[in-house]
UniProtKB/TrEMBL annotation:
It comes from the Bacteria. It comes from Streptomonospora nanhaiensis. InterPro entries: DEAD/DEAH_box_helicase_dom, Helicase_ATP-bd, Helicase_C-like, NA-bd_OB-fold, P-loop_NTPase, RecG/Mfd, RecG_dom3_C, RecG_wedge. One of its GO terms (molecular function) is DNA helicase activity. This is Probable DNA 3'-5' helicase RecG.
Length: 735
């Protein structure tokens, strides 16, 4: 029996061809080649009289060879000598010249004068003569219905494969045709019962139809079957992981009546929204479980995610455990630390004179803290004195330990790698901790995992009272510079009303590359449109202070500043002592200045969708309408302008993540690639196939429940093993 993992070098392909496929396309096995699907299909074109040919058309003609001759084109200017064959054909209405490069003797032996054939290609003109360069052709017998055969030849669907230098689509098509003869003996990974109930083709039939379709219906049927292969096997992997996760131990965190959570709720100066209360109850049920929670808390900017997360952390503290909040930057960690302490009040000052009886302690741990403060924070975490620990990547270091880590809250997960998040989970001493991931705009890979069913999602869709709408506009600075001038005037008008503004730039300045920790998948590095470097904080701040914003109090903020200096800038801004802050993305998340009403993002095309949405969320937080200006030099109609227009058109986080996904694809859900280029999914697309993916999840869950080891379905088990080798299995565990 032929196997999917049979090396191409041992099959019918010549060694040179197998080597080229391996080196240029990373195709090593029979399965690799058969799953290298055409990206589109062409038709040769309608049968056309020679007299009616038009330059640039793709045509198929039936004609007879009048003459054929070979000649040698001498080498010149670094080009090798070529063997060339030229022919003239006619159909009685006109003449057409054919040119073939290399293998001249082969074509001359086939196309002898008087021979009838069909020729397909693009019409061009050379020295006033119509011609086809290196056309495809098929010889016809004089007997039989040549006209019907010619029409069938013209109508045939021609697969077009993704090609690379040295391996064109035609060569790949010939190579695939060579191995298609072996597909009948391949094991079919989908069980017969599933194929029957879902009306799916057998795998051999599907492969023949996808690579050599007789009609468009063949392509549709084959695609549906092959998508099921990918969706079902992937869902099996996730279903098995979910089953194993449910068997992992985690300490339940049931909370207690009359504890710190009840005291916190009682002192809140506002009423929780229905959405916040509902999400809190759902998280409470998950924290009560004896297996780890892995939950994505999605909520638009300002929906109250931090409050919901804090209530979950207090529930864990009530149960005797500790909770950690991991933030991507020191600015955000300090902001969270101040915010949590402010919300808790006396409930966060355990051991102090004014501390409440049920109080806990909130510790802060960052990389720039002085030795004394760091020792105190480490001791509070290790002893359990601090029920809540807020920090940055410093929390991931080996010497950081906890008495009883029960909950890990990750703010803006796209700023942390899988390995980093996993390192923190390993610090629990009693089973695995529960994990809560917060984000306003999931990156494409997260959206993919959500739809595939590997993340438990809770969403805050209701904004608290007092949140004002934020209007967003694209400012094409190169095309309409007066729009940008008006933007600076708006900042002056807002400042006159006592309000404040942010101006964000992609670089710090002094030839730096940008702010560390930028979002994965943001716009590529390099010059901005027009050949200039991306705008920088230091230059823009000076220019604004001397020009459009002269007379206003303008300060800079960026990641190279000392932590105390950054904190001082934000404190002055929060206190209303500064009119405008020119910053990098250090203010992307968590910064809460209710008096800020304007956000200007310079070179906005340099930022990803998620970053733009997060930055926009820094304004309109205090009941005052917000304004966000996306300034760009990108040309109208370019992908960058389309991305900015999409951000301006909606404030819905999940909708924006779908826009991002359409532009970047979902990445490899079983590996560490964040972009679509390395995706293990060849046929399946997330947004178009959500319904099919859901059906595959139901089937996979049922199969795993009945036969966890897939012992009754060996071909399916082999397909799963091929999709999920050990290193990918470990990665999936961590995610």
């Amino acid at each position: 029996m032929t196997t999917w993992d049979e090396p191409l070098s041992r099959g019918p392909l010549r060694g040179k061809t197998a080597k080229a496929l391996a080196e240029k396309l990373d195709l090593h096995t029979l399965g690799d080649l058969l799953r290298y699907y055409p990206r589109r299909y062409d038709r040769r074109g309608d049968l056309t009289d020679l007299a009616a040919l038009r330059e640039g058309e793709e045509v198929t003609v039936q004609a007879r060879v009048l003459d054929a001759r070979r000649r040698t084109v001498p080498a010149r200017q670094g080009r090798r000598r070529m063997d060339m064959m030229e022919a003239t054909v006619t159909d009685g209405t006109g003449r057409l010249h054919l040119t073939f490069f290399n293998r001249g003797s082969y074509h001359q032996n086939a196309l002898v004068p008087g021979r009838l054939a069909m020729f397909s290609g693009r019409v061009s003109t050379f020295k006033g003569r119509r011609q086809l360069d290196h056309p495809q052709y098929e010889l016809l017998d004089e007997e039989g219905d040549t006209e019907e055969r010619a029409q069938a030849y013209a109508d045939e669907l021609i697969p077009v494969y993704p090609a690379v230098k040295g391996l064109d689509s035609t060569t790949i098509a010939r190579t695939v045709a060579t191995v298609l003869a072996d597909v009948d003996s391949l094991p079919d990974p989908l069980p017969p019962g599933l194929r029957g109930s879902r009306g799916l083709l057998g795998v051999a039939d599907a492969l023949r139809r996808i690579h050599r379709p007789a009609e468009w219906a063949d392509v549709g049927a084959a695609r549906r079957r092959l998508k099921w292969d990918e969706a079902f096997v992937l869902q099996l992997a996730l279903a098995r992981r979910r089953r194993q996760a449910e068997e992992l131990p985690a300490k339940p965190r049931p909370g207690v009546d009359g504890g710190i959570l009840d005291a916190f709720d009682a002192q809140l100066p506002f009423t929780l929204t229905d959405g916040q209360r509902e999400v809190g109850e759902r998280l409470a049920r998950r924290l009560d479980a004896s297996h780890p929670m892995h939950c994505l808390l999605q909520g638009d900017v300002g929906a109250g995610k931090t409050l919901v997360a804090l209530r979950a952390m207090l529930r864990v503290v009530d149960s005797g455990g500790q909770a950690v909040m991991l933030a991507p930057t020191e600015v955000l960690a300090q902001q969270h630390h101040r915010s949590v302490n402010a919300m808790l009040g006396a409930l966060g000052r355990a051991g102090q004179i004014d501390g409440a009886d049920t109080a806990t302690r909130v510790a802060l741990l960052t990389g720039s803290m002085n030795a004394a403060a760091r020792r105190e924070a480490l001791l509070d975490a290790a002893s359990g004195a601090a029920g809540i620990v807020v920090g940055t990547h410093a929390l991931l270091q080996e010497h950081v330990s906890f008495a009883d880590l029960g909950l890990v809250v990750v703010d803006e997960q796209h700023r942390f790698g899988v390995e980093q998040r996993d390192a923190l989970r390993e610090k629990a001493v009693d089973g695995r901790p529960h994990v809560l991931v917060m984000t306003a705009t999931p990156i494409p890979r997260t959206v993919a995992m959500t739809v595939y069913g590997d993340l438990d999602v809770v969403a805050l869709t209701q904004l608290p009272s007092g949140r004002a709408p934020v209007s967003t506009h694209v400012v094409p600075a190169a095309e309409k510079p007066h729009f940008l001038t008006r933007g600076w005037e708006r900042i002056r008008e807002e400042a006159a009303e006592g309000h404040q503004a942010f101006v964000v730039c992609p670089r710090i300045g002094d030839d730096d590359a940008g702010e560390a920790g930028e979002e994965v998948g943001a716009a590529p590095e390099g010059d901005a449109p027009g050949g200039r470097p991306p705008l920088a904080v230091l230059e823009v701040a000076a220019r604004l202070a001397e020009g459009p914003l002269s007379g206003l109090r303008v300060e800079s903020l960026h990641g190279r500043m000392a932590p105390d200096d950054k904190d001082a800038v934000m404190r002055r801004f929060s206190a209303g002592e500064t009119d405008a802050v020119v910053s990098t993305t250090v203010i992307e998340v968590g910064v809460d200045v209710p008096n800020a009403t304007v956000m200007v993002i310079m070179d906005a095309d340099r930022f990803g969708v998620s970053q733009l949405h997060q930055l926009r969320g820094r304004v309109g937080r205090g009941g005052l309408p917000g304004l966000c200006l996306l300034v760009t030099d990108a040309e109208e109609g370019s992908p960058a302008r389309e991305r900015l227009a999409a951000v301006a058109a909606t404030t819905d986080g999940f909708e924006l993540s779908r826009v991002d996904l359409e532009m970047r694809r979902e990445g490899d859900v079983l590996g560490d690639s964040q972009s679509g280029a390395r995706s293990s999914l060849r046929m399946l697309t997330l947004l178009k196939d959500e319904e099919l993916i859901g059906e595959a999840r139901e089937e996979a869950t049922a199969y795993v429940a009945e036969d966890p080891g897939l012992e009754a379905h060996p071909p399916l088990a082999e397909a799963l093993e091929a999709l999920l080798p050990e290193e990918r299995a470990e990665y999936l565990d961590k995610t």
